[in-house]
Amino acid sequence: MPHIVNFRLFLPFHTLKTKTKALPFSTLVDILCSHLHQSNGSVENSLSMVKPKLDSQSIIQVLNTCPPQLGVRFFVWAGFQSGYRHSSYMYTKASNLLRIHHNPQIIRDVIESYEAEGSLVTVNMFREVLKLCKEARLADMALWVLRKMEDTFNLHADTVMYNLVIRLCCKKGDIETALKLTSEMSSNDLCPDLITYMAIVEGFSNAGRSEEAYSVLKVMRLHGCSPNLVILSAILDGFCRSGSMERALELLDEMEKGGVCTPNVVTYTSVIQSFCKRGQWKEALDILDRMKAFGCHANHVTVFTLVESLCAGGHVEQAYGLFDKFVVEHGVSYGDFYSSLVISLMRIKKLEEAVKLFKEMLAGDARLDTLASSLLLKELCMKDRILDGFYLLEAIENKGCLSSIDSDIYSILLIGLCQRSHLKEATKLAKIMLKKSVLLRPPHKYAAIDILIKSGEKDLVNQLTGIHKKEL
């Protein structure tokens, strides 16, 4: 039986009267820290006297000022206070601030302090502790916490808590422990769900045990849990990664005929990618045709997967030849197809061909891809072709179809133009930056400003630096 600690008052009466009101930020943090450090007995009882209106910033400030063990206890307590719940970001932040991954003993110390003090501990508190273990990727500690809550505190974990520990064990590669926990759930009248089975499937697949991952489907159906597309796709991906392409195609056939969990573009693209990695382009193209016959259309990821693989394998002409298959048959846009080609050509060091193709896109009706534009401009800068980069950027801007080229590229081009005395082009670029509210980035900022001022563009500089002031 858990014990309730003695409840003691730590604040004078006039302070208690205002506790339920919203306190100033610094005052709230100071009061919480004071109760953490001065509590005689239960930290949780002392904190609960404050009845604070918590937010993420005040919690972070408290964590920054207290020792790790107290920090964990405070964080756990805060997680189920009225009007506040931790976000996923907060678990990450707390784990990093308290360095839980580097010092897992903190978790053990906290649980043992609950036991030593005879604290009233709830399932919610253990759930918060387990979530910190999850964030710090502490499989062994999470398992210890699960056992401790049952053996020492006589509390029973729910499905969510079991799933958390099972997933951690699977990610660690300890599949056998994960399977034991799954069986244990059934013994405790808890039903393994899709999340449970997904963790097991991923564990088997990551360990290269793809047939055992497939066998999970039978277990699921016996327990009345129907596999969904995510689980089937994970098993199929496991077959692909282990090189069992024949089994992957058999499962794909099952999915196509099953009628419930039919394959989607991600499923087909995964198989195409696996064939491409093995240089089996004919088989990859067969899957593309099979995909079309099933009524599923390729997306930009499918396009890039095939185009990039063919180019890397020295089959550039064959990559160009996929235009009709993707654009006409699958309805992929001109821009997506040719952008994939531009990036693929750059990756095999065919920069001139990539630039030529990109200019043809600019002259036509293709909608330009932001990633391809940014990568091409960056490559020209790296090759010290600053003027070429500027004229290409100017043409892109004149086309008026892009809004999010990497802002660093503008700064690199501007300082490059200034250093090479291309002041006319530098002024044009500065005006483009001003129009688009693009910030000058260090380390290029001050050198570019000096050169522009010396060239008589002080007003332009004032406007550019004004953008910075507005952003601050």
Automatic annotation (TrEMBL):
Keywords: Repeat. InterPro entries: Mito_RNA_Proc_CCM1 (IPR051114), PPR_rpt (IPR002885), TPR-like_helical_dom_sf (IPR011990). The keyword Lipid metabolism does not apply. SUPFAM superfamilies: TPR-like. One of its GO terms (biological process) is mitochondrion organization. The keyword Repeat applies. It holds the Pfam family PPR_2. GO terms for cellular component: mitochondrion. PPR repeats lie at residues 158-192, 193-227, 228-262, 264-298. GO terms for molecular function: mRNA binding. PANTHER family: MITOCHONDRIAL GROUP I INTRON SPLICING FACTOR CCM1-RELATED, PENTATRICOPEPTIDE REPEAT-CONTAINING PROTEIN PET309, MITOCHONDRIAL. This is Pentatricopeptide repeat-containing protein isoform A. It comes from Glycine soja. The lineage of its organism: Eukaryota, Viridiplantae, Streptophyta, Embryophyta, Tracheophyta.
